Amino acid sequence: MARNIHAGVIGAAGYAGAELVRLLAGHPHIKELSLGSVSFEGRPLYELYPNFLRRINPALVKPEEAAAAADVVFAALPNGVGEPFAKTCVEKNIPFIDFSADFRFGGDQAAYRAWYGMAYQFPNLREHAVYGLPELNRQALRERAGTGRIIIANPGCYPTAASLAAYPALARGMLAEGTVIVDAASGITGGGRETARSFHYPECADSLSPYKVGCHRHTPEIQRNFAAMTAKGGKAPALIFTPHLAPMNRGILSTLYAPLAGNWRAGPADPMRPPSPEAAEKERALQEAYAAFYQNEPFVRVLPAGINPATGRVRGSNYCDIAVRLDQTGSFLIAVSAIDNMVKGAAGQAVQNMNILFGFDETAGLEAIPASF
Amino acid sequence: MARNIHAGVIGAAGYAGAELVRLLAGHPHIKELSLGSVSFEGRPLYELYPNFLRRINPALVKPEEAAAAADVVFAALPNGVGEPFAKTCVEKNIPFIDFSADFRFGGDQAAYRAWYGMAYQFPNLREHAVYGLPELNRQALRERAGTGRIIIANPGCYPTAASLAAYPALARGMLAEGTVIVDAASGITGGGRETARSFHYPECADSLSPYKVGCHRHTPEIQRNFAAMTAKGGKAPALIFTPHLAPMNRGILSTLYAPLAGNWRAGPADPMRPPSPEAAEKERALQEAYAAFYQNEPFVRVLPAGINPATGRVRGSNYCDIAVRLDQTGSFLIAVSAIDNMVKGAAGQAVQNMNILFGFDETAGLEAIPASF
Amino acid sequence: MARNIHAGVIGAAGYAGAELVRLLAGHPHIKELSLGSVSFEGRPLYELYPNFLRRINPALVKPEEAAAAADVVFAALPNGVGEPFAKTCVEKNIPFIDFSADFRFGGDQAAYRAWYGMAYQFPNLREHAVYGLPELNRQALRERAGTGRIIIANPGCYPTAASLAAYPALARGMLAEGTVIVDAASGITGGGRETARSFHYPECADSLSPYKVGCHRHTPEIQRNFAAMTAKGGKAPALIFTPHLAPMNRGILSTLYAPLAGNWRAGPADPMRPPSPEAAEKERALQEAYAAFYQNEPFVRVLPAGINPATGRVRGSNYCDIAVRLDQTGSFLIAVSAIDNMVKGAAGQAVQNMNILFGFDETAGLEAIPASF
Amino acid sequence: MARNIHAGVIGAAGYAGAELVRLLAGHPHIKELSLGSVSFEGRPLYELYPNFLRRINPALVKPEEAAAAADVVFAALPNGVGEPFAKTCVEKNIPFIDFSADFRFGGDQAAYRAWYGMAYQFPNLREHAVYGLPELNRQALRERAGTGRIIIANPGCYPTAASLAAYPALARGMLAEGTVIVDAASGITGGGRETARSFHYPECADSLSPYKVGCHRHTPEIQRNFAAMTAKGGKAPALIFTPHLAPMNRGILSTLYAPLAGNWRAGPADPMRPPSPEAAEKERALQEAYAAFYQNEPFVRVLPAGINPATGRVRGSNYCDIAVRLDQTGSFLIAVSAIDNMVKGAAGQAVQNMNILFGFDETAGLEAIPASF
User: Fold this and answer.
1) In this structure, are residues B250 and B187 in contact, taking their beta carbons and an 8 Å threshold?
2) Per-residue confidence at A2, pLDDT binned at 50, 70, 90?
C-alpha cells in the first residue's frame, strides 16, 4: 500500500510552482508540503496569490529548507538555476523533478548550450536524468522507482502537446519521409509570472501573433522526442515549429502536419474537390490507429470523429485531447492536440511523474474533470 | 476629378454589411447611402447596432429599393441569395460588389457546387465577374471601370490573408515543388451575426480550437488563387488549409509554410542547432524580395525584421501585415500575415475595389490608422 | 459515519446542471449518479460538453428516470417547470434541491407572480421549502435532516453574493436607516446555455454594460434576504440593485453601499481630502466585525486589509470573498464580494446544502482551491 | 475660415499619447505633427506601436523640440512632470493641453497636494488653467480662444464619465439632498503603458475586481465637478466613488445613483413588487429632461428607452452614451454612462478642446463612428 510522503517545492512563487502547490494540496498521498522561494522567502503564498487564502498558510521558506525534509523535491525555477539543488538531492537519494530545460537534453550538452546559451554546471548529473513524458518513458521511470537517484526532466509545454500528437504516427511507421510542421499557440500564462511588455494586458488581449518564428528553444526538444518516438529502423522527420501567443490564460493548441506513408493515404485528390469517401475511410483508420495506440493511457483522449479539441475543454485538467484528421489532398496527417499548459504542460505532468515513481495510482491528485466553460 | 456617388448596400444588417456602412459613411466620395435588408426592413440600423445612433438614421429598406438609385451596389448576403440582384445590376450597367462565394469560382461551377452544394442560378453572369483581390487583379478591375457591366467577387477572409502571404513566392518562382500548408485562425466575428452554439460566449471565450479540418470551403478559393498567382510555366502547389477559432472579436492570423527552391534555401541545418548566420542572411533576402514585390501596394506592409504581425495591430484598418521568415531547417518559407477580417477580409477590401473601379484614390475612406490597442 | 448516496440530477444538460455533475462526480459520498434531461435524453453528456469524455459515459435519461432511484434529487430547470418533480419527491420523502426561483418566495406567491409572471402549481409544497443559503439557514436545514420532506430553494447567484456582503451589517445592527445599493456584474455563463443575441461572442466580448436596470428579478429575493438577516427589532433597508454583464465566463462581483449607524462612522470628512486616520481605524473595526461574524463559515473569506476580491481568485471554488471598506466620506460601508456564479452561486451551494442535509462534512466535494489564474 | 496648424505632442509614447497621435494624424486641420518623448527619443513610434508603420515615420524627438515650433502643445505626461513645459508655452502664448492632474484643481493646491502628494512647481500658472470638459466649460474655452495664454486641464477618464451622467440632474435641481454613489469600471488601458503586476495579462484577464475603494484620486475631481455643475443656490451632493478593473482593453462604464427630489420621484413602492406604471412614466420624464439638456451636444448621446449603454458600442469614438433610469423604489436616479477611456476619456476630449479653442468644427478629426464589434 502506498505510503504518504512529504513534498518540497522550490520556486513555489512562480506560475508553474503555484499550480503545482494547488495540485499537491489536493493530493491524497501528500501528507506534508514545504514551499520554498528565493525571491519571496518569509511571505505567505496567499499574498501573491490570494486564491490560497486559508488553504496554504505557512510563509515561504528558503529553497534549501523546503528541500531539507522532503521525500521528493520539485523545482520550478528558471533555466540554469536548479543544478545545485539537483546535486544535493541526488546525493541524498531524493528524487528531483525539474521543470526547467536543464536536464531535458541528457548528454547532448552542445545542443543545450547552443539553444540556452549556458553550460552544464555538473554535467555528470545527467546520468540520473530521465525525460519525464510518461507516455514515452513510463517504463524507465518505473525502473528507477525506489532507487531515489533520479532527476526527472519534466517536459516543456509545447513539446508535450506536439510530441503526443506525433507519437503513434512515428512509433507505428505511419509517416513518409519529409518535414513535419507543428503550428502551435499558447495562452499567456506560458510566459510566466514576470511582467513583460509582451504580456501586458493591452498589448496581447484580443490579438493573436507569432513569436520566435524559426528559432524557439522548444524546437530541439521536440526534435529529440521525435527521434525517441520513431520506430526502430525508421528515420525521424525534420521539424518545423512555430509558436503563437493567443489571448487566453491557459492552454496550448498544437496542429501537426505530417506526410503519410503510402498505405495510410487516400488516392490523389482533385485539389478543387472536397474530401472523397475514400478519404473519409482513411481518416477513420488513422483515428482508430491512434485510439488503439493510446487505449491504456489515462490522460490521452483520442477524440471521436466529430469532436474537435479545444483548450477550453481541458482547462484545469491533465488531459491531452487529440483529434486525428486527413488533409483534403489525402496525403497528410493533421493531428491537433490540446492541453492545459499549466497542468499536462507543467505541474500536472510533474505530479503524474511523481505518482509513477512512488507507485501511487497514476491519476492520484489529477482526477479533476476539466471545467465545462 | 472624381465625382461623388450613391452607394446601395444589400444585407446591411449583417456583420460585414454593418462594417461596410461604417466605412462608407466616412468615405469622401459617397454622397448618399441606401441601406437594404430582407430581415430588418423598416427598422433603423441603430436598433441592431446602437453604435450607429445619430449617425445612420433612416430605416432599412427592401433590398430592391436600396439598389434602385445606386451608382454601385454592395451585397453582403448569404451564399446563393444574391444572384437575382446581380442580374438586375448587370442589366442596368451598375457595378455589383458581392461578398458571397457565388462569383468567386468563375466558370468552374462544378467546384462551387461541390463545396457549396448549390447550382448557379444565372451561370452566364460569371462572364462579368472579376475576383476582387486588388493586389492580384487591379489591372482587370481598371479595365472594366466605366463599363458598368461588372460583378466583383469580393474575396473570402482566409483567402485574402493566405494568398497575399503566398503571392510573391509564387509569382517570383521562389518555391520548390511540394505542398503548401496554411494554418490560420479567425476572430469570432468571422462567424457572422447569427447566433450559434459555437459562437455562444461561454463556449468559445478563453479557448482555441480548430474546425472543419481538411474540409473548409475556403480551400478551393485559396487553391485557385495559388494557380492564378503562380509564374507562367510554373506549377501551383497543392494546398493544405486548417482554420481555427480564436477568442477575439476581429482578425485573421495566417501562417504559411512553403518549401523553398534551392537558391532561396540555407544549407542543410543540424536539426539540433539554432539557425546559422547563413540562414539569417537568406531570411533577409526573402524579406527583401517580398518588400520589393509589394513596394507599391498601399495596404500590404511587409514588416521589418524584428516585428511580428499581430491581429491587434491591424484592427480597424485595411492593412495586411506580413512577416517573412526562414524555418530552422533552412528549407521552408514561413510567411505570417495578419488582417482585420472585417476590413481587408471583407468590407474594406470591397471599398478598395470600389475605389479602383471608380477611379477614386485607392485609399479613400480607408485611411484609418489601426488602433494601438 | 456518513453513508454514501445516489444522486439524481434533472436538467443536467444546462450550464448549472453540467457544473453540478462535475462537482458530484468528484464527491466522496456520491456512489451513483443518474442524469436526466428533457431535451437531450438519449445522448451522452460529453456530446454537449466534451470535457466529460471518458468521465461521464451513460446517456442522459428521462427526468423521471433520473429521479426514480435517487436518495436526493437536484433540479436545474427553468422557472416554472420543476414543481411536479418536487411534488413527487416530497411524496416519496426524497430531498429535492431546486435551482429555480420557484421555491424562493415561500408563501409570498404574489411576489413570485408579480416578478415571474406565473402562478404556483402546487402552492402547498412551500410548507416544505427552506431557502438554502447555509450561512443564514444552516440550522433550519439541519433540523430537516433525516425527515426527507424538504425542498431546498437554492439561492440565486446575485442574491448569494449581495446577501453575504450585507449579512453581518444587518444582523449586528451596523446600519443607519436608508437605502442600500448593490451594483453587481456577472460573467456570461450567468445567462445559461441557450444561445441569444446578448451572449453572442462579438456582442458581449470586450464590453461592459448594464441590463434590466431597476427591474431585475433578483431584486425581491435580495430584499427578502435583507429582511431575514436584519436583527430583531431592526428595519430592513430598501434595496436598489443593478446588474451588469462583464466580458468573462464565470464570476459575480458585487459592490454594496450601505449607510452606517453613527458609532460605525468616522467623523464628517472634508470631501476634498483623502480618508483620515480615524477613517482607517473605523475601517479596521468594520473588517474585524465582519471577520468575527463569519469566523466559523467554511466558505466565506473576509479578506485581510490590502487584498481586494477578484472573481478570478475564486474561480472554480465555493468561496465567497468579501472586502470591507469605509467610503471616503466616512459614513458608508462598502462591502465587495466575489463568487464563482456557477459554484457558490449555483452548483456548489447546492452541494453544500446537500452536505448539511445528509450530515456530510460541509466541504465534502467542494475542497478545490480556486485556480491561481 | 479655419487655418491649419502645427501640433506638438509631449509624451507621445504613452498610451494616451499614442491614441492622440492616431487622432491628430487624421485631423483635417493639422498640417504638421511633432512628437516628443523623454524615454524614447530617437526611436520611431512604430517600433513601440507597429500599427503606425508607414503612417508615422519620423523618430521621436526631445520634448522641447516637439514643442518648439508648435501652434498648440499637448502633454500626455505623468503627474508632476509637465509644469516646466506649461510655463514655457504660457510665456510663448502657445495653448497647452495637459492630460495630467496638475492643473485640474486650479487654486486648490491643498487638495492636489493631499491626493497627489506633490506641491505645485509654478502655482501662478493656475490662473491660466481651464478645466477642459467642453460640456461644462465650452464658453470659458471660447473666451480664451485667440489669446494663447491658456492651459487646458484635460479631465480624468472616470470624472468625464461620472460627471456627464450627473450634470443635467445637478444643473436642473433634480436631486434631493444626500449622497451620490458612482460605481465604475475601466478597461485595462486605463493603467497606462508601464508594465505592472495588476496589468499582467494572467492576473487581470477573465476577472473583475475593485481597487482603491474609498480612496481613488479621481474622487476630488468628480467632487469639484459636482460643485461646478450644481445649480446656483443648490448644494453639491457628497460623493462616493468606487473604481473597478474590467477584463477589456478600452472603455469606462459608470453607474451613478442619486436620490431624486420629490417631484421627480414615483410614489413609494412596495419593495417586493416590480416598478409601477407611474414609475415608468417618471422614468420617461427623466430621460426627456436629460435628452433636452444635452440636445446640442455633439458627443453626448442620451439613449432612447430600451437601449443600454455598452463600452463596446462607443469603442474608438468620442461619444459618451448615457442611459437614464429610475430605480425600483422610485426614488433614485440611475444614470449609466459609457465612454472610450482613451478617446472621450483622454485623447479625443483633448482634440475636442483644441477644436473649440481654434474655432474648428468641434467634431473635426473625431467623426469616427464607433466600431460595431
Assistant:
1) yes
2) low
Q: How many CA atoms lie within 13 A of D69 on its CB side?
A: 8
Residue of chain C minimizing CA distance to A190: C373
Q: Report the distance separating Cα D100 and Cα D104, nearest Å.
A: 8
Measure CA A295 to chain center: 19
Instruction: Give CA–CA dist D48/D67, Å, rounded.
Output: 21
CB contact under 8 A, B201 and C15: no
C-beta neighbour count of D367 within 10 angstroms: 15
pTM of the model: 0.98
* CATH code of domain C158-340: 3.30.360.10
The ipTM of this complex is 0.97
- Whether B257 sits inside 8 A of A238 (CB atoms) is no
Catalytic residue among C157, C204, C215, C320: C157
Q: Which residues does A85 contact at the CB level (< 8 Å), separation at least 6?
A: A10, A63, A64, A67, A73, A75, A77, A96
Q: Which of C193, C197, C201 sits opposite B205 (nearest CB)?
A: C201
Widest distance between CA atoms in chain C: 67
Query: For A240, which of B209, B210, B328 is closest by C-beta distance?
Result: B328
What is the Cα–Cα distance from A6 to A11, expressed in whole angstroms?
Answer: 16
Which CATH number does C5-155+344-358 carry? 3.40.50.720
- Report whether A372 contacts C18 (CB < 8 A): yes
- Cβ contact (<8 Å) for C249 and B202? yes
Residue intervals in chain B for CATH 3.40.50.720 = 5-155+344-358
Contacts from A60-63 at CB under 8 Å and sequence distance 24+?
A: A60/A12, A60/A13, A60/A35, A60/A36, A61/A34, A61/A35, A61/A36, A61/A37, A62/A36, A62/A38, A63/A10, A63/A11, A63/A36, A63/A37, A63/A38
Mutation site, C53, C249, C315, interface A, largest A CB count within 10 A: C53
Q: Helices (DSSP H) in chain A: which residue ranges?
A: 15-25, 45-48, 63-68, 83-91, 109-116, 134-144, 157-171, 201-204, 218-229, 277-293, 348-358
Residue C41's alpha-carbon distances to A355, C47, C57, C371, in angstroms, are: 38, 12, 13, 33
Question: Torsion over CA of B228, B229, B231 and B234, rounded to 10 degrees?
Answer: -70
Cross-chain residue pair B193–C201, CB shorter than 8 Å: no
Contact C360/C367 with Cβ under 8 angstroms? no
Would residue C320 show up in a list of annotated catalytic residues for this protein? no
Smallest Cβ–Cβ distance between D247 and the set C114, C211, C247 belongs to C247
Per-residue pLDDT of chain D (373 residues; tens, 9 = 90+): 468 999 999 999 999 999 999 999 999 999 999 999 999 999 999 999 999 999 999 999 999 999 999 999 999 999 999 999 999 999 999 999 999 999 999 999 999 999 999 999 999 999 999 999 999 999 999 998 877 799 999 999 999 999 999 999 999 999 999 999 999 999 999 999 999 999 999 999 999 999 999 999 999 999 999 999 999 999 999 999 999 999 999 999 999 999 999 999 998 888 899 999 999 999 999 999 999 999 999 999 999 999 999 999 999 999 999 999 999 989 999 999 999 999 999 999 999 999 999 999 999 999 999 999 9
Residues of B classed as catalytic: 157
CA distance D251 to chain A (A): 12
* Residue in B15, B189, B201 closest to C204 by CB: B201
The CATH 3.30.360.10 portion of chain D extends over 158-340
Q: How far is A51 from chain C (nearest CA, A)?
A: 5
Q: How far is A339 from chain C (nearest CA, A)?
A: 12
For the segment C70-108, what is each residue's pLDDT rounded down to a tens digit? 999 999 999 999 999 999 999 999 999 999 999 999 999
Element spanning D285, H or E = helix D277-293
Across the interface, whether the CB atoms of C54 and A301 are under 8 A apart is answered yes
